[in-house]
Specification:
The chain is an alpha/beta fold. It has helices spanning 16-28, 38-57, 71-86, 99-111, 129-137, 160-169, 230-233, 241-256, 258-279, 306-309, 311-317, 337-341, 361-374; strands at residues 4-5, 65-68, 90-93, 115-118, 143-146, 173-177, 196-200, 211-215, 284-285, 297-302, 320-321, 323-325, 349-354. The strands form 3 sheets. A 7-stranded mixed sheet has the order 2-8-7-6-5-3-4, sandwiched between helices. α1 (16-28) runs antiparallel to α8, α3 (71-86) runs parallel beside α4 (99-111) and α9 (258-279) runs parallel beside α13 (361-374). The chain binds pyridoxal-5'-phosphate.
Length: 382
Amino acid sequence: MKRIYFDNAATTPISEEVIEFMSDLMRSHYGNPSSIHKEGREARTIIETARKKIANLIGASIGEIFFTSGGTEANNMVLQCAVRDLGVKRIITSSIEHHCVLHTLDAMEKETNVKVEFVDIDGKGKVSLAHLEALISEDAEKTLVSLMHCNNEIGTMIDLEKVSEMCVEHNVYFHSDTVQTMGYYPINVDETKISFLAGAAHKFHGPKGVGFIYINGENLVKPIINGGSQERNMRAGTENIYGIAGMAKALEMSYGNLETTREHTLGLRNYLKNQMVEYFEDIQFNGDHEGDFHFKTLTVSFPSSPKSEMLLLNLDIIGICASGGSACSSGAEKGSHVLEKIQADPDRKSIRFSFSKYNTKEEVDFLIEKLKTIVQVKEAVS
Ligand SMILES: Cc1ncc(COP(=O)(O)O)c(C=O)c1O
């Protein structure tokens, strides 16, 4: 049975070109980049070429890009380094950030004297810029603002430029978790002043277990993983050269096809959205679905019914991958913190469909046809 993959916000399939590129390197280059012989030097060149590519794609200098094991490590590193090395005493964030930010902040509040404050968000997951401005205008101690560019569960985005301007004006550090948007939206740190960014290759058709952090050159921080002198003493451990090279290739391909990917993916998202409304009873959408939303993500909220409880499982059985969540009211079952914070109705079932350049309209049609057998169809069309 052919499987249909509508879970591209969770991870994306690696593109064939990246697989080819990585396998060629795996066969031909096994040297340790820290070795001084030819094999080592060649491996080092692969890493530095990748760094240059990534730096160029986001308008950074090569000295501002450091490779990590993914988005989680990059976000951990920003938050920990900002407090430990830059003297940050206050972090302003939102309650709907990824757990790799929220759980890190929880731990840091217990272990350090940093104070965490939450900016208001509305029912669509939109950050209140007025509240953010009020918070950063306070004559407080050294502050870092950490806000994700796009929420992974509901697709709501922040205005990176506006937040950056605000942070520059008030002289506070700005970190953005750009794991969902890297490779999908142009990001240029030369034009938009940002202190830190986090990226993960597996979200843009690259390999898993590799990512990067952008650290603006003015911010002098120390490593959180100690050992050898890799990554210019910023992250110890023999580099994942194939992952790093594959990530750079994937990012280059993504930015090379930005408009085509956006048009295709947005088309599928909007098509599914219209079909949902046309055929099914009482459909809602989570997040800022008509405003600032990621073009690859559509989170559909289905009315409560015995069938909708099992929706995700039923979709999986018929060959369709998506992600689900619900706001948890009882506290007994661990629901989605994002849906809970945007005060989504805990009785409704949310399914996130997220698309990529590899999806087709026929796949969306297949999904709709299958949903008609599981979800309450509108009377007029039944
Ligand atoms: C917004 C966001 N931040 C961070 C992460 C973590 O990235 P990784 O899985 O590469 O550690 C994810 C991945 O799900 C994400 O969507």
